[in-house]
Amino acid sequence: MAPRRPKGAGAFPKPVESPVPSRPDPDALYAALDLGTNSCRMLIAQPKGGGFHVVDSFSKSVQLGTGLERTGRLSRASMARTVQALRICQQKLKRNKVQRMRLVTTEACRRARNARDFIRQVQRETGLALEIIQPEEEARLAVISCAPLVSVKTEQLLVVDIGGGSTELVWIDLSSVPRQDRPAAIMRLHAGFHPPESPFPAAKVVDWISVPLGVATLRDQFSDVEDDSARFALMSWFFEENLANFAPYKDEQLREGFQIVGTSGTVTTVAASHLGLKRYDRTKVDGLRMTSDQIDKVIRGYLDLGPAGRRRDPRIGEDRQALIMSGSAILQALLRVWPTDRLSVADRGLREGLLYAQMSADGVLEGGVV
């Protein structure tokens, strides 16, 4: 199960435009749905300035990828759970009269032999047309969602998106971009990792990789190991082995001007644990910077709790206690490979990237991002 890259740089289907495209109503609503290996999540939002205002949202654990590692297929129970969740999404889209939307699915449907049958079932039973996106586009959307968190002092940026079925890493060189333009240069990657020539200063994608190991698939690889600490160590080293072909892997990086941004439920849960939150608060987590020592302390605390203690922890809970350890193993491997003083926490990801990309392409965001 080797990490995958596209055969051609920026090889995406080109959108078909009408002969006379009309400017969208600035009050129009946009929707983005992300059906992953574990969760179904949707945002409905309205453009506002250089960003957007969320009007409605949905998030539910559907565990679509349960059993996929063993059978290569989506199970009937997983598909039934997911269709029920998608019915709720369809009702929200209809109630809000949303016309502009992208509804995507990722690793589980990329790998499942019966994915096309499932997508036809979803269309038949909910009216929603799901689109399977490829790893490069998934990575690109995660990157642009994090653009507002990029420091103007950042010259080398690593964005990490730890999903349920895969983990995307993108290394970006911003050293030739003027400081004040760096977040906007990241946003312009909505046109592709290798966009056409532009008068604007460009962010250079040095390398990217999609490792087919996320919190669910990595956990399933070592489900036969009973000892909690041994399983964690094996998962971390196994994930690191899968980074060997990533270009910056062996290079020693200067800490000055280097930023890692992590986007995932793992990263936000670790941040909530570090802050000691009794109830999750996005405003305190999104944009938080954690030191590697603080992250290590939280992960050691998870290991000390053990499975039973993690189930009782309100920040983790019954559903995520096993997943948080596979996600923490990935996070620990990354900090071991690229020692850094701080990691920026992003409570954002594919949905936000989908919204930014749609709105940027339509020209409804202020600030000149094109």
UniProtKB/TrEMBL annotation:
GO molecular function, one term: pyrophosphatase activity
Ppx/GppA phosphatase N-terminal domain segment(s): 44-359
Region (Disordered) residue spans: 1-25
Domain of life: Bacteria
Gene3D superfamilies membership: 3.30.420.40, Exopolyphosphatase. Domain 2 (3.30.420.150)
Pfam entry (one): Ppx-GppA
Name the UniProt record assigns to this protein: Ppx/GppA phosphatase
Originating species: Cribrihabitans marinus
